[in-house]
Amino acid sequence: MIDNKNSSLDEEASNIFLKNNINPDIKQKVILTPSEKFENCKNIGDVYELVKETVERVIGSRRAGLTLYLADLPMNIGGLHQIGSNSIVMNRTLLKAIESMAKSKNDVNSFTYFILLHEYLHALGYAEEEKVRELTYYITVSSFGKGHFTTKLSKMGFAYILKQISHVPGEEGKIEIVKDFDRSSMSYIG
After folding, report:
1. Confidence of residue 25 (pLDDT cuts 50, 70, 90)
2. How many angstroms separate the CA atoms of 141 and 4, rounded?
């Protein structure tokens, strides 16, 4: 019985399409804005795809073949790209700190987008930090508008992020003794 109702609804919808001279075989593709795509980002890979898309749309550049690494870096470094390499390194410690204090997934994605965009621009060959900061802001405001949190981050800069961090999560039970660190104590170990 339910199937019959659905099929009659399908027929009715088809008739409406035909009456309005719309070809039912043509499927309209919904084009999402960058802000709508941002809302749908579920992981770093999704955010990175949006970075590549917005960069290409705004400045017309794209690069493939990069690898992302997460590494524990000093807190004053959000990420890095060595010119000529095929990698971006993102600060895992800082990312964990942002995740622990974020009010929403979008806050984490804003931080992730901001860092990945900055490093992606380096990977495209922009070496000067000031130029990369300017482009980061230009791309975010062009893609998301002035009111979006990602744009605000790119305008305020990395120092704003560091001021917001009140807690840096550590990995409990993962204490590593650094061998050969203080050589003056070697005679006591003997």
Report:
1. low
2. 50
At position 104, the amino acid (one-letter code) is: S
What fold is seen in the domain 34-164? Zincin-like (3.30.2010)
Distances (CA, A) of 43 to 6, 47, 88: 36, 7, 16
Beginning with the edge strand found earlier in the chain, give each strand of the sheet holding 79-80 in spatial order: 67-71, 87-91, 79-80
Cβ of 116: how many Cβ atoms within 10 Å?
Answer: 23
Mapped onto helix, strand or coil, the DSSP state of residue 80 is strand
Contact 78, 56 (CB under 8 A): no
Q: What are the Cα distances from residue 167, in Å, to 32, 93, 94?
A: 36, 11, 10
pTM: 0.73
**Domain boundaries defined on the chain:** 34-164
Whether the CB-CB separation of 25 and 14 falls below 8 Å is answered with: no
- Angle, vertex CA 68, rays to CA 67 and CA 73, nearest 5: 140
User: How far apart (Å, rounded) are the C-alpha atoms in residues 90 and 78?
Assistant: 6
